[in-house]
Amino acid sequence: MSSCCSISPGRALPCPSCGEIGPVVGVAPVRPHRPDVVDRPWQHCQTAGCPVVYYLDLGVVDADAVVTQVGSKATDRPTPVCFCFAHTADDLVADADANGGVSTIKAEIRQAVADGYCACEHLNPSTKCCLADIHRTLNLNAATRVGTR
Which end of the chain lies in a sparser environment, N or C, as judged by fewer CB atoms within 10 Å? Predict the structure, then answer.
């Protein structure tokens, strides 16, 4: 795997809107949305109902200011899951359904990450690798399908 999740942690502060403490993600994932932001240890608020996406003691970047939907903040479909290769939750579910419950997209992303072709630290709002989110999305779909039979 690549070193896509190597952000050095700083002092974590609570989100000024919801009060939850989000992970320190640095400036890299904030810059695509707001090129003028200061180079400081930004944090990512992961609380779904909170309008804040990134914050630090000097200010916030809210859901209306980002150029792409953020997974945990997405209120409209398609919900992004993989930011490096632009796959949504709908893409993953359709792929798994079309392939007998096995996602070829997940395998392709896993191989791309292993080959060093991801940029999670810059593209994913949480700066984390998306593979865990992909796995969770597919498991949720599988559980939902079993529950409806």
Answer: C
Q: CB of 93 within 8 A of CB of 82?
A: no
Phi (first) and psi of residue 118, to 5 degrees: -115, 160
Ranges of CATH 2.20.25 domains, the chain = 8-73
Third-level CATH fold of 8-73:
N-terminal domain of TfIIb (2.20.25)
Residue with tokens 């709002």: 125
Per-residue model confidence as pLDDT tens digits over 56-110 = 987 898 888 877 666 667 666 567 888 888 888 889 999 999 999 899 999 999 9
Contact 73, 44 (CB under 8 A): no
Omega prior to 78 cis, within 30 of 0: yes
pLDDT at 76: 61
Token readout for 85 is 């290769």
From CA 23, how far away is CA 43, in angstroms rounded? 5
CA gap 81, 54 in Å, rounded:
18
Residue 87 three-state SS: strand
Say which residue, 119 or 11, is predicted with more confidence: 119
